[in-house]
Amino acid sequence: MKELPVSQAYRLLEPGPIVFVTTSQNGKPNIMTMGFHMMIQHDPPLIGCIIGPWDHSYSALRATGECVIAIPTVDLAEKVVDIGNCSGEAVEKFERFGLTPQPARDVAAPLIKECIANIECRVTDTRLVDEYSMFILEAYRIRVNADRKERRTLHHRGDGSFTVDGDVLDLRERMVKWRHLQR
Questions:
Q1: Is the pTM above the cut of 0.90?
Q2: Which of 81-90, 145-154, 170-179 has the lowest mean pLDDT?
Q3: Is 150 left (phi over 0), alpha (psi -120 to 50) or beta?
Q4: Model confidence over 19-56: pLDDT tens digits?
Q5: Distance between alpha carbon 43 and the CA centroid of its chain, in Å?
Q6: Helix (H, G, I), strand (E, B) or coil at 45
Q7: Where are the alpha helices (DSSP H) in 54-145?
């Protein structure tokens, strides 16, 4: 996988794709599907995500303070839904769904080889967890799988249907105020 600067995390998440979150607690990796996330700021790159006590990953994230946000593509759509419909408490999801864990560099949670990108994160703020189940994560490292042919991501519409990315509208020449972000 090719590494990107963490300052580019917003480019991967701002469109709001459905993502996987991996955690590892006591040597046991887990994957969950997540749709409730947002970029909070560019520098340092902060990501807000909703992971509640109803999710098996919640206790691992609270205990370890780290995770990986992995971005699947449309060819993984059925796995995205199926992973979201079972609990890591009862299922070893990497094995069941045929996904390949790869070691991260800065966190114990694994990367997912089949995903287009993986963002290594650490919890930086838990003040909103008790009331809103919102963790604030700081991105520390991004790995992009340049070999992936499929690049379209999924966006959940809230009812079990998804929108798939397609055409790109290039308006970079008009982004005069934010030109420094086009590196």
A1: no
A2: 170-179
A3: beta
A4: 999 999 999 999 999 988 999 999 999 999 999 999 99
A5: 18
A6: coil
A7: 56-64, 77-84, 93-96, 129-132
The pLDDT assigned to 2 comes to 86
Is the distance from CB of 91 to CB of 99 less than 8 angstroms? no
Q: Which residue has the tokens 């560019």?
A: 42
**Token pair of 102 as six digits:** 């790869």
CB burial of residue 60 (10 Å; 0-12, 13-18, 19+): buried
pLDDT at 98 (0 to 100): 98
> To which residue do tokens 């520390």 refer?
140
- What is the distance of C-alpha 60 from the center of its chain? 16
Q: What distance in Å separates the CA atoms of residue 90 and residue 19, rounded to the nearest whole number?
A: 21
DSSP class of 180:
G
Distance CA 95, CA 9 (A): 28
pLDDT per residue as tens digits for the range 85-101: 999 999 999 999 999 99
Tokens representing 57? 């990953």
Q: Structural domain boundaries of the chain?
A: 2-182
Whole-number pLDDT of residue 38: 93
Tell me if the domain spanning 2-182 has CATH number 3.40.50.880.
Answer: no
Report CA-CA distances (Å) from 139 to 13, 52, 102, 167, 172.
11, 20, 18, 27, 24
Structure tokens given for 154: 């999924």
C-alpha to C-alpha distance for 169 and 181, rounded to whole angstroms: 17
